[in-house]
Design brief:
This protein is of the alpha+beta class. The protein contains 13 helices and 31 strands. The chain is globular and about 80 Å long. 47% of the residues are buried. The structure holds guanosine-5'-diphosphate. Guanosine-5'-diphosphate binds next to α2.
Length: 531
């Protein structure tokens, strides 16, 4: 039966997808491990698994050059490569200055996350923020402790920090032999075998790995091996072994040790992704019904990239495929409006260049160009109507009052602000005290403000001015608490346009706690709740 065969084929394609993001603090080594993962994929690829598409494109950028050399597909939002018989989609989580609500939203489109820690620093602020999103969404997390080639902290102390601070139980898959800075390799806890590493010059190629039996390792590494064995015994006693159910429930995390810069431990990470990370699962629709991966095509928009160049203004909507087979040119339905949406310009983004794609499967990401009708969280589907729940709003940490430079542009100003809010560029807050002419913009990262101001100018012809506010903390509150907080210094309550939520803003966590302590009955809830 052809129908059944097609269904099975989509299911099989979904089963070989692994879609994940790296959560880390700037400088932990995200770019380095991304390259290292791709490098390993190429190495496998040379053995015949990857069919390089080099030569078909003319534009050369860093990404492009990397793609051509390594036979992998890279987009500005997604790196796609083949590993063995898997298709791996690594979604980018922009950090540094471009850390924004988009960075959090990427985590709505992955099935798993790799938490990358610097061995000398452990859990850092940006990692913690991203981890909270994973926790709220119950995304399974694999931990990679990086930079083991440099002096760092004790492995047991790092595990302890993970367990104590974020209540995630570490279950090491590998264990380092040699202290941080004097790294000899890792023991695979499941087999007891040691993989010894030799740094290759500049880390330019995959690390040279050598398998050693426990006896050989003991002979070669003496005291360091002995110490690793003692630590492993300790771990064995505490029962810190990988358990697939608790990993999938996001209460335990498999841990690997390595040095991305020298490609140490990167192959093991790919192996863990292959054997433990989940393939795309059925996604629950707004009615609460899980939609199987082999149902007709459906996906949702998790990121919109607007081109701010006036001469070439378009908008790319990035869609995570949740079910079915996507083929370029198919006409799908925009669930919000019921209107048809033509996909002949479906593309993958390649650095500065773009290439059309012909098909995609659950777990993959497609870029739809000129998608001005689409907003963040919108569902696209084929066949009978389906809609996925809207994406959550994330906790903003930056606030600014926005005003039109010229009052005569107010109508356009209001339309523009509503549009940016609907697209999820910024969150828009209002209060009676400030009025509609001075909405407060709220953002996860300050670059969201720049994008908002530039787009109001370019698309709505409204020059605007921003006045930054000193607030840093936001909590959900209620009308009774709003009364109580009226006139309190260092605090203000506003209404979020998008969902009507009341947000209490405070200048610092410390002020927030002291205000709450002196006013019993004021309700302050975290904004990010598990759905
Ligand atoms: P990102 O900001 O997380 O993308 O970090 P990068 O990948 O740019 O790495 C930041 C710095 O750490 C760079 O200088 C890297 O060469 C270095 N780095 C990354 N991984 C390792 C590692 O395993 N060992 C050492 N010693 N340095 C590393």
């Amino acid at each position: 039966m052809p129908g059944a065969a097609t269904t099975t084929a989509v299911g099989a394609e979904a089963a070989r997808r692994r879609t994940f993001a790296v959560i880390s603090h700037p400088d932990a080594g995200k770019s380095t491990i991304t390259e290292a993962l791709a490098l390993h994929a190429r190495v496998i690829g040379e053995a015949g698994a990857v069919h390089g598409k080099a030569g078909r494109r003319g534009v050369v950028s860093d990404w492009m050059a990397m793609e051509q050399q390594r036979g992998i597909s890279i987009t500005s939002a997604v790196l796609q490569f083949a590993y063995r018989d898997l298709v791996v989609n690594l979604l980018d989580t922009p950090g540094h200055a471009d850390f924004s609500e988009d960075t959090y939203r990427v985590l709505t489109a992955v099935d798993c996350a790799v938490m990358l820690l610097d061995a000398a620093k452990g859990l850092e602020p940006q990692t913690l923020k991203l981890f909270e999103v994973c926790r709220a969404r119950r995304i399974p997390v694999i931990t990679f402790i990086n930079k083991w080639d440099r002096p760092g902290r004790e492995p047991l102390a790092l595990l302890d920090e993970i367990e104590q601070r974020i209540n995630l139980r570490p279950t090491p898959i590998t264990w380092p032999v040699g202290t941080a800075g004097h790294f000899h390799g890792v023991v695979d806890r499941r087999t007891g075998e040691m993989t010894a590493f030799q740094r290759t010059p500049g880390g330019a190629t995959a690390a040279v790995e050598e398998q050693l039996t426990p006896a050989e390792a003991a002979h070669r590494y003496g005291g360091d091996w002995q110490r690793a064995v003692e630590e492993l015994d300790l771990l064995g006693l505490t029962g810190a072994d990988h358990d697939q159910d608790t990993f999938m429930a996001a209460t335990t995390t498999p841990v690997l040790f390595g040095a991305a810069v020298a490609n140490f431990g990167v192959r093991q990470l790919l192996e863990v992704l292959a054997s433990h990370a989940p393939a795309p699962q059925p996604r629950v629709d707004t009615g609460g019904t899980p939609r199987g991966v082999d149902a007709p095509f459906a996906g949702f928009v998790f990121k919109i990239q607007a081109n701010m160049n006036k001469a070439h203004r378009d908008q790319v909507a990035f869609v995570r495929v949740c079910s079915g087979r996507f083929s370029r040119g198919m006409t799908v339905t925009h669930a919000g409006t019921g209107r048809p949406f033509a996909t002949k310009y479906a593309q993958q983004m390649f650095g500065a260049s773009r290439e059309t794609i012909d098909e995609a499967y659950p777990g993959d990401v497609i870029g739809l160009v000129n998608a001005t009708a689409l907003g963040i969280g919108d569902t696209l589907h084929d066949g009978p109507a389906v809609a996925f729940p809207p994406l959550p709003s994330f906790t903003p940490e930056h606030f600014a009052v926005l005003r039109a430079a010229d009052i005569s542009t107010f109508k356009r100003f209001r339309r523009g602000v509503e549009q940016l809010d609907a697209e999820g560029v910024v969150q828009v807050l209002r209060s009676d005290r400030r009025g509609d002419q001075a909405p407060v913009l709220a953002a996860v990262g300050p670059m969201q403000f720049e994008v908002a101001v530039a787009r109001l100018d370019a698309e709505f012809g409204v020059p605007t001015q921003l006045e930054h506010l000193p607030y840093r903390e936001a909590r959900r509150t209620d009308a009774a608490s709003q009364e109580r907080l009226l006139g309190v210094p260092d605090a203000e309550v506003l209404t979020r346009l998008r969902d009507g939520a009341l947000l209490a803003l405070f200048t610092s966590g410390w002020r927030m706690r002291s205000i709450a302590d002196s006013r019993p009955g004021v309700t302050l809830e975290p904004l990010l709740a598990a759905d």
